[in-house]
Amino acid sequence: MQKWILAGTALVMVATCAVAQRQRLPAECRQEVMQQCGKAGGRVAIVACIKEKAQAGQFSQSCTMGLVRMAERKQARATIPTGGTEYSYGDHPKQALDFYPASDPAKRPPLVIFIHGGGWTVGDKKSGTGDKAKYFTAHGYAFASLGYRLVPDADPAGQATDIAAAVAYLRGRAKELAFDPDRIIISGHSAGAHLAALVSSDERYFKAAGVPLSAIRGTVLLDGAGYDVATQMNDNGGPLLAKLYTGAFGTDPANQKRLSPITYAKSPNVGHWLMIHDAKRKDATSQTRDFAAALDKAGDETRILAVPNSSHLEINHDVGAGDNLITREFAAFIKSVL
Fold first, then answer.
1. Mind listing the pLDDT tens digit for each residue in 119-140?
2. Mean pLDDT of the chain
3. Is the distance from CB of 265 to CB of 294 less than 8 angstroms?
4. 189 pairs with which residues across the strands?
5. Whole-angstrom distance, CA of residue 301 vs CA of residue 184
6. What is the pLDDT of residue 29?
7. Are 219 and 338 in contact (CB under 8 A)?
8. How many other C-beta atoms can be found within 10 angstroms of the C-beta atom of residue 49?
9. Burial code of 208-246, b = ≥16 C-beta within 10 A, e = fewer?
10. Residue 145 β-bridge partners
11. How confident is the model at residue 74 (pLDDT cuts 50, 70, 90)?
12. What are the tens digits of pLDDT across the range 258-306?
């Protein structure tokens, strides 16, 4: 997540959505928007007001995330995948996943896993999936999109535990679901990129779930910026980001370090990484560069793709959505590590 949560024009889209589709926001958030910006004037003035107030952190966290969720749905153009089967891997409603078989499951294909974003606080296993399931299953892979408990029901450690449990559940049913349990790719967007990086670097999560780290052949990170949590909170400030990260990671530096993937760069980890980020985002650029450098120093193989003329949400949307740079690099990486 960048300084104002969304990159490029997405924050403007948040404001525009709020004006055009207030009825989709919770009543409390609609009231906040009207109180803060209802007297600003016409549509253009209201949009500017919402953008200004959001950047200043003057909306509540729940309202801010409601606006962000609305923007995600709009900018991702809401391609909700069909054809998958939902499985529960725990008792909480969010502890569920959607599985999509490969076009030819008889060949025991590899499995591509996706972890959605949403600032650790919002999001679900369908809204961020877009065209990924259709693309990967058509190209010979099984695909799964994972749900996980959200803050405040679970902190990022609990969320990483959920991810590991979901992977263990899938591997336990690999024969039935017809995929190779020892050829898995982990990917995630935004907060999901942080969680993908955390379980791929801190071996304790998969070890506790009974998943051998060798089964994870590579990890793809889509525009994350939480690989060094303390640095992100201290150096890329702003009240909105502070609310978001404090709500997820708290104020204890030891806890922030414990939940930072960069802490485990020297530990046994996945070993093969593709890190894709918006070239315009300063925090994503620095966080990606520093994490990759730490992994490289430890002997891992990393590749960074800085995407021009894109945004935080478009990077996620573009995976599998036609012949584009991000899809090509993602596909090439998978082939190189399997």
1. 999 889 997 899 999 999 999 9
2. 87
3. yes
4. 222
5. 17
6. 82
7. no
8. 20
9. ebebebebbbbbbbbbbbbbbbbbbbeebebebbebbbe
10. 98, 114
11. low
12. 999 999 999 899 999 999 999 999 999 999 999 999 999 999 999 999 9
Q: In degrees rounded to 5, what are phi and psi of residue 219?
A: -130, 135
234, pLDDT greater than 90: no
Helix (H, G, I), strand (E, B) or coil at 274: strand
By DSSP bridging, strand 216-222 and strand 184-189 are parallel
Instruction: Please give the share of the chain, as a percent, with pLDDT higher than 70.
Output: 86
Strand partners, 87: 97
Q: Which amino acid is at 96?
A: A
| Distance in angstroms (rounded) separating the CA atoms of residues 141 and 137 | 5
CB 205 within 8 A of CB 269: no
> Are 157 and 261 spatial neighbours (Cβ–Cβ below 8 Å)?
no
The DSSP string of 193-228 is: HHHHHHHHH-THHHHHHT--GGGEEEEEEES---SS
**Higher pLDDT pick, 313 / 62:** 313
List, in sequence order, the alpha helices (H) in 90-155. Answer: 132-138
Amino acid at 81: P
Provide the 3-class DSSP secondary structure of residue 312: helix
List strands edge to edge, sheet with 142-146: 85-88, 96-100, 142-146, 111-115, 184-189, 216-222, 272-278, 301-307
Strand-pair category, 272-278 with 216-222: parallel
